[in-house]
Amino acid sequence: YNFTYPFSSSISTANGSALVKIGNTTVICGIKGELTCPPSDAPNKGYIVPNVDLPPLCSSRFRPGPPSEQAQVASQFIADVIDSSNVIQKEDLCIEKGKLSWVLYCDIICLDYDGNLLDTCVVALLAALKNARLPEVTINKETDLAEVNTDKLHHLNVSKHPVSSSFSIFDNTIVIVDPTVEEETLSTAMMTVVTDEDDRLCMLHKPGGSALSGEKLQDCISRAVTRHREVSKLIEKVMDSFEPDK
Amino acid sequence: MSPRKLCVPGEKLCSTEDCIPGTGTYLRHGYIFAALAGYVFRKNEGEELPVISVVKETEAQLLPDVGAIVTCKVTSINPRFAKVHILYVGSTPLKDRFRGTIRKEDVRATEKDKVEIYKSFRPGDIVLAKVISLGDVQSNYLLTTAENELGVVVAHSEAGVQMIPISWCEMQCPRTHGKEFRKVARVQPEFLQA
Amino acid sequence: MPVDTKRVRGPEESQSPLLFLPSIAKKSVAAERGRQDGRRRGQADVRPVFARCGLVSQAKGSAYIEAGNTKLICSVFGPREAERKDEAGASSGRLLCDLRFAPFSCPNRGAWIPSSEDKDTAQGLLEALRPGVRLHRYPRAQIEVNVLVLENDGSALAHAITCASMALADAGIEMYDVVLGCSLRLDGNSFLLDPTLQEETAGEPGAQGSVTVALLPSLNQVSGLQADGDMREDTLAEAVRACMEGCHKLYPVIQRALLRAVHKRASPSES
């Protein structure tokens, strides 16, 4: 395993942020909360809007302009992880049923692209959600308007801790964990497994490539479970070390 | 050895009366300034004044220049020219892809009108060539192989085996013994390492 | 408004919670003298700067700069084959600049689609950098400069200039000089050097202006100047002088960061 270095950073203009570095790959996630009307089909829920951006800054393979296919896939992947793992109960983001709720814009920007983007994004998202703090919002009964109290900040209730593990597969024989960009381009297939702390599978993403035997798949899943423990321990440790000075 | 002097771009190194400007430097108002962030070298080259140059540890990336010998790979051919990707300048690999063109009349020095591109290059061949022009608005780098030392150095036969040169215009496949036409280079020993 | 189908979309509309703050909370900015962060007005008092080179492993050269809360990262690619060929590109290289503000970089969330502010700032950056780079050494090639503002707390353009020139030097691009940027806010009769975002946006109307200067420090030449607002001729000259002084204060820090980056790599063999 390559070692993981997550560390929180303080972007004071964001409600929560985290910079995560796995190997050379560096990703920054900033969370901004805004107020909106809850969706009409689920009046007691809020929104989480994740977007992954691969700017030309992070590697020469990306061009400026609208998001590339890879960025779109990554955004959708993160959105699916949030939905399927229930990392945040969307009900928690509701302020007043049918009237007002939070929308969390989670903007994930890759600063240095050296493979294993998805794992890094998930760790960054999790770390940013954990240090995000939102002001207290109440609805004034008389005027029916929202009032924001920036002195009272509270943390988000992060209920699950999904961790993703990516594997590069070479012809159903060799499996590499945490691949670099070189390994990714040379490999015949990629696979990403997302598990949560109860060792449950949240998501399994294998975009095409060569076929994989059942045993190898099981092997990858069990490796993902072990890796989850290591990574979450690391996140915990880093988050703790940042906590006292806040 | 004393620690080598470091400099940043724009640093005044010395006057032109003391040194001759080398690579990584430029002249202005009679003084030599650094153009790179790197180490300062002074070297005596038999002349009166030492040459001062700035060297950056990672080899500054070269660009194909007129007269430079480049190693390229043929990507496509048609009756008028062959398109190539330039891979090396001298012995320095390029990080990014540069495209070049070898026109029919630049393939060899003699009997230019009888040249057929199909009998000179095939896609996938590795070719040594020389830059003759940086090209104009529409075209890429223009290259030539009109020298004995320039031309195809590595080629694969239809059977997919690397071929052995047998004359300046033919190569033979060791497996099928079939002969194919190429503009073969007489490889100079000094380029063998590149 | 065109719908952006390539990104995960949120609700149609949302408002920043800052809009709902009770209006009393909006503090009156900067008492008469002094500034909120303890710097003095009218003096060449720049924020402490943290600068580093070579963070982005995939780029030819890169730099990160942090001044107060303003944080920027920049990477440089190239020289590579020019994509667009035009008359001017044949004899000398092209410099391309791209500057983006991250959506979370400002108090109000920005959109993903580049705004006109991004493009203006990128243009200012390009114009300030171009005189410093020896582009004629790179015929038919292009050099790409990408800047990402992670957090904008004022003077983004000035620091983008400094950061980009560090990244260019780190990439081994030949330059006449490093380019340093410094900006200034004219507020009433006094100068605020290296203003914060609050100082940039607030203040009583009238007698407002801002100046950004890009300087080639060792040649002592100004490579870029951007001034807007309403000011007299002599005020402008004075403002430019103050900015230049600010740049010279920055120079040793940048120099040290560059030298450290050179030092970190293995020293070249004697040749």
UniProtKB/TrEMBL annotation, chain A:
Which InterPro entries does its entry note? ExoRNase_PH_dom1, ExoRNase_PH_dom2, ExoRNase_PH_dom2_sf, Exosome_comp_Rrp42_subfam, PNPase/RNase_PH_dom_sf, Ribosomal_Su5_D2-typ_SF, Rrp43
Q: Listed GO cellular component terms?
A: cytoplasmic exosome (RNase complex); nuclear exosome (RNase complex); nucleolus
* Source superkingdom: Eukaryota
Give the UniProt keywords, A-Z. Answer: Cytoplasm, Exosome, Nucleus, RNA-binding, rRNA processing
Q: Which SUPFAM superfamilies match?
A: Ribonuclease PH domain 2-like, Ribosomal protein S5 domain 2-like
Family the entry assigns: Belongs to the RNase PH family.
Please identify the protein, giving its name as recorded.
Ribosomal RNA-processing protein 43
Q: What is the lineage of its organism?
A: Eukaryota, Metazoa, Chordata, Craniata, Vertebrata
Automatic annotation (TrEMBL), chain B:
Location(s), subcellular: Cytoplasm; Nucleus, Nucleolus
Q: Name one GO biological process term.
A: rRNA processing
Matching Gene3D superfamilies, A to Z? 2.40.50.100, Nucleic acid-binding proteins (2.40.50.140)
Principal place of residence = cytoplasm
Question: In what residue span(s) does the S1 motif domain sit?
Answer: 65-146
Quote the SMART domains the UniProt record gives: S1 (SM00316)
Q: Name one GO molecular function term.
A: RNA binding
| Keywords, in A-Z order | Cytoplasm, Exosome, Nucleus, Phosphoprotein, RNA-binding, rRNA processing
Q: Which domain of life is it from?
A: Eukaryota
Say yes or no: keyword Membrane present: no
Protein family membership: Belongs to the CSL4 family.
Record's subunit section: Component of the RNA exosome core complex (Exo-9), composed of EXOSC1, EXOSC2, EXOSC3, EXOSC4, EXOSC5, EXOSC6, EXOSC7, EXOSC8 and EXOSC9; within the complex interacts with EXOSC6. The catalytically inactive RNA exosome core complex (Exo-9) associates with the catalytic subunit EXOSC10/RRP6. Exo-9 may associate with DIS3 to form the nucleolar exosome complex, or DIS3L to form the cytoplasmic exosome complex. Exo-9 is formed by a hexameric base ring consisting of the heterodimers EXOSC4-EXOSC9, EXOSC5-EXOSC8 and EXOSC6-EXOSC7, and a cap ring consisting of EXOSC1, EXOSC2 and EXOSC3.
Name of the protein described by the UniProt record: Exosome complex component CSL4
Automatic annotation (TrEMBL), chain C:
Membrane-traversing stretches? none
Q: What is its main location?
A: cytoplasm
InterPro entries found in the cross-reference section? ExoRNase_PH_dom1, ExoRNase_PH_dom2, ExoRNase_PH_dom2_sf, PNPase/RNase_PH_dom_sf, Ribosomal_Su5_D2-typ_SF, RNase_PH
Task: Using the record's annotation, list all stretches that form the Exoribonuclease phosphorolytic domain.
Answer: 46-174, 177-242
**By what name is this protein known?**
Exosome complex component MTR3
What compartments host this protein? Answer: Cytoplasm; Nucleus, Nucleolus
| Provenance organism | Paramormyrops kingsleyae
Query: Which cellular component appears as one GO term in the record?
Result: nucleolus
GO molecular function ontology, one term from the record: RNA binding
